[in-house]
Amino acid sequence: MGVFLMWYSLNEMSAARRLEMWEAIKGVNPLWVVISLFFATCSHLSRAYRWKFMLEPMGYSPRLWNSFSAVMIAYFANTFILRSGEILRGVVISKSEKIPFEKAFGSIISERIADLAVLLVIMTTAIVLQSTTLIDYFKTAANPLPSIIGLAVLLTIGILGLRILKKSSHPFIIKVRDFGLGILEGVKSILNMKKNAAFIFHTLFIWTMYIAMFWVMKFTVPGLEEAPLGVILAAFVVGAFSMSATNAGMGIYPIAMGAIFSFFGFLYEDAFTFGWIIWGTQTIFNIIVGGICGLFFVLAQRKV
C-alpha cells in the first residue's frame, strides 16, 4: 500500500511540478536536517534509557547500548514490515540481556500506553489552539458508529477468550495462559516503578524532541516558515497517526502533510514537499542506524 501511495501521489503531479519539488528537496539547507536528526537521536536515546525503569521492577537492568540497539532495530523493521518492530525489539533485548520475551514485550506495550496518553494531550492542545477549524474537521472526518460497533465486537470476543484461557486445562491453552501472564507482568511494570519522576521526565522529553524534530523542518520549505505552533501541532498529530497506517508512513505521510497544511490555508505543494523531506530524512536515518545496530546484534549473537 505504501509503494502504491508513493506512486499514485507522484503520478498525479505534473512533470514540471515533480521537477520543482525535486529541486526544492535538493536545495534544502542541511543544517535544519542535521538539527532535526540530532533531536531524533536524543529522543531515541531517551526512549532506550527510559526502558530500564520499566524492567528494573522485574529484576532486569539492560545496558544502554543494547536497549538503544533494540529501539533502532525496531524502527528499521517497521520500515519494511508494518508493526513488526515492537515484536523484534522484544526479541533483541531478550537475546542480548537474557530477559524473557513476554516480560520485555509487556513493558513495551505499557510504554506505548504512556506514549499514547502524551499524544492525546498534544492532540488536545492542538484542538484548543485551533479550536474552531479542528473541531469542525474532526466532526466531518469520519462516522464514529462503525468504530464503536467494531470496538464492541472486539470487547465481546476478548471477554469470551479470557474465560476460555482461565478455565481450560488443555496443554496448549496453559502455555498461552502462562505467556499472557508474562506479558501482563511486563505491562504492570509501569505501576511498580521506583523512579516514576524519571520515567515521566523522559516521556515528556521524548515527545518534546519529537515535536522539535518536526518543528525545525518547517524551515526547509519557505512556504511553511510562518506556520504557527497550533498548525504545527495539528500536523504533528496527523503525521503520528499516519505513521501507523502504512510501513513507517510510507506513501501516506506526505499526503497527510499536504492535506492538513492545506486545510489551514497553506499550499498543498509546499506541504507535500515538506512531508517528503521529513519522512525521507528520518526513514533513511532509521534504516542506516537501525541496520548498523542489527548487524552488530547478529555478529554478537554469533559469538555467543
From TrEMBL:
Per the UniProt record, which residue ranges are transmembrane?
Answer: 64-82, 113-135, 147-165, 197-215, 227-245, 252-268, 274-300
User: Keywords, A to Z?
Assistant: Cell membrane, Membrane, Transmembrane, Transmembrane helix
GO CC, sorted alphabetically, is:
plasma membrane
Pfam families per record: LPG_synthase_TM
Instruction: Using the UniProt record, give the first listed, main subcellular location.
Output: membrane
What membrane topology does this protein have?
Multi-pass membrane protein
Give a yes or no for keyword Transmembrane in this entry.
Answer: yes
Decide whether keyword Ligase is in the record: no
Q: Which InterPro entries match?
A: L-PG_synthase/AglD
Q: Where in the cell is it found?
A: Cell membrane
What this protein is called in its record is UPF0104 family protein
